[in-house]
Amino acid sequence: MTDPVGKLPSELDQLPDRDPEETAEWAASLDAVTQAAGPHRAAYLMRRSLQHAEGAGLALPKLLETDYINSIPTAAEPAFDGDLEMESKITAWNRWNAAAMVTRGARYGVGGHIATFASAAWLYETGFNHFFRGKEGDGSGDQLYIQGHASPGIYARAFLDGRLSEQQLDNFRQESGGEGLPSYPHPRRLPWLWEFPTVSMGLGPLSAIYQARFNRYLANRSIKDTANSHVWAFLGDGEMDEPESTAALALAAREQLDNLTFVINCNLQRLDGPVRANFRVVQELEAQFRGAGWNVVKTLWGNAWDELFQLDTTGALLRRLREVPDAQFQTYATRDVAYIREHFFGAEPALVELAKLLTDAKIAECFYTSRGGHEARKVYAAYKAAVEHKGAPTVILAQTVKGYTLGKGFESKNANHQMKKLSIDEFKGMRELLGLPIPDSAFEDGLVPYGHPGADSPEVRYLQERRAALGGPAPARRLHASAPLPQPEERAFKALYKGSGKQEMATTMAFVRLVKDLMRDKETGKRWVPIVPDEARTFGMESLFPSAGIYSPLGQTYDPVDRDQLMYYKEAKDGQILNEGITEAGAMADFIAAATSYATHGETMIPFYIFYSMFGWQRTGDQMWQLADQLGKGFIVGATAGRTTLTGEGLQHADGHSHLIAATNPASLNYDPAFAYEVAVIVKDGLRRMYGPDAEDVFYYLTVYNEPKPQPAMPEGVEEGIVKGLYRFREGTPAKADAPRLQLLASGTAIHWALEAQELLAADWGVTADVWSATSWGELRRDALEADEALLRGEVQVPYVTQALSGAPGPVLAVSDWMRQVPDQISQWVEQDWSSLGTDGFGLSDTRAAARRHFGVDAQSIVVASLAQLAKRGEVPASAVKEARERYGL
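Structure (tokenized):
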């Protein structure tokens, strides 16, 4: 709705105007400038006024978008701290070898990417030569999140540095022989080089933010001084469309993470074409980051553009740059100068006049090659501004040409992401452009050669001297010499071994109680990192708030509403709990940073991430793979697990499948404990396996339930079975010697239905059932697969599940609160007749009893299924099945 003169209402209309006459004079002045000098002059004066106001300390909203020019003028660039000629030679060798590596690999059809590093070479080289701290200096060094498709350039640099051989380069993407290189950054495949797996786009930027945040967490908790660690994330402009890429921008600004820099390679192209064909991605990203509170540095144009901007006395050039869409600018880089004169400079008379002052060579230089991201001095200035900026993270928007130096067949072409090789003639053209001393005779065998100036060459000496001054090689992953964590005192575990007596307790609460006790351990208690996405009270964790504290870099600047209560909401600068709000992705990024701190910082941490089971693997499964790739350790806990334990919640909250997803991850050890003592045994064994003398690169997934039940004391001698995945919990007592018999295998909360079914079978049908607790269908399968592999080597190895059930009479019926496929994982190694019950299909909102009856997994349904299996074998009458269904109302 507008007022009578057509002006839109504004928030300013709500503020008192102490001097309306003065306000009118300011408005009249602006109108006069607009009429006399044009709207562009008026806009310029307004922006100058805002800039002056900011400098004077006036609190005004900032502009979200600036002109399409460099943030740092050429005249303001700092002195370049290095030998630019030498660094140009180093970069040339790395460009060559990166392209040669991928092209030579094309013989085997293994693929690779050339154009990304070609565009970003100076973004990396400037950092390696001047900024990126190594791990052999003071502290942990910097954390580098390398853009996945740029990996050939990083390998090329490691080759020049002597860390990789020519044979290894030739085995790029061919790892089976033992001397190969993984396609992308992958710590599990090349653990001495790569720290962070980044090619699953979007996860790198998200993880970088939480890594920078975790660095501060370690410092604020006095665990590790991380003041000299800076996090650098190298990203593509197309990658920024992934929702994870920008999901935590506000967090980074809110917590003032000035130890973090994003470097976004704005070559204006994604995999299939322009990132923003009809728009301008740089301006969009600038507004997005500025709006989130980041410091933005734009490095768009090379020095060749300085002359154009100096000649632009009317602002016409800036206006034209603001309006040309990215796809059109990409086209300029591929067309002749006449086209540029007509379609760019011909847009208005002032530009036509400006173009008359420019030679064709100058226009060609500006539009074909001169980008800020291709000039070391521009990149150096941007990086220096980033590391010196305080109070906010920095994003550098560096404009480049995708495929730069690879020739006209590559540069700015839509298809260059899929182009895997250059011809010999194209390599010779690249050689001339880069000035490399590679003779024609080196091509005689039809293969492009690798190039190296020699181990004692000035280039290699310079490279190594720069890295030595910065703290050693980079990127690099180091396992610091740290002692295994001591095992916690037995007291914490014994509390759960004893059971709960008549008191009912859910296994979720049992886990929380155990961890709370472990956090009191004098040796290892401070190393626990509880992580929860805003559901702590759901899981009964509020008791940790006042004792452990919720981490906040600001502490607690307010008086909490529940301050007078025992379990009040306490935030602290040294708080131990990471309560992330409603972001499972953010909580998982926290977990990854904590789970790999043993390598990143040489400080072993024990993260446990507890979440609403349905919103774990299903929502953030890609990050679970990232965790495995990064060799992370810790406990992931799916609470309120299963498909029927959530009274009234319904199918959108009911998880019957996370164990299936988890089973696909080789590093995940998956358990579905039924009792509190099982939780204790599993956690104790997990601490040994992950943090003991023979530490393994695995993590644990536990599902726990919110259904209160009396917790029994631990029977004698069951620890091995709990860890391996199966043990007999309660043996049936036959009413007579020839009574029909079967084996009931149950996991998690289903053990209670099986125990009730055991009693019904005995009382109503004279059938004896043994009840087994299957703590881990996944570990039983893993062990069986290892036995199968041993058999192929000629070794006889009986699977544990086969051994455990050997000689057990009758058929086997498995039941769980999961889809049948979960227990069916082990069916082929069970010698007895096998059948299963599960919660397949969609759920519904109802009581636990009704939901279990719906899925056919309650005690009565187990009885009917048991009778059906025995009837099939002729051990009970077939009529017993129908009779049982009628008796129990099924």
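The first helix runs from residue 20 to 37. The two ends are 63 Å apart (CA to CA).
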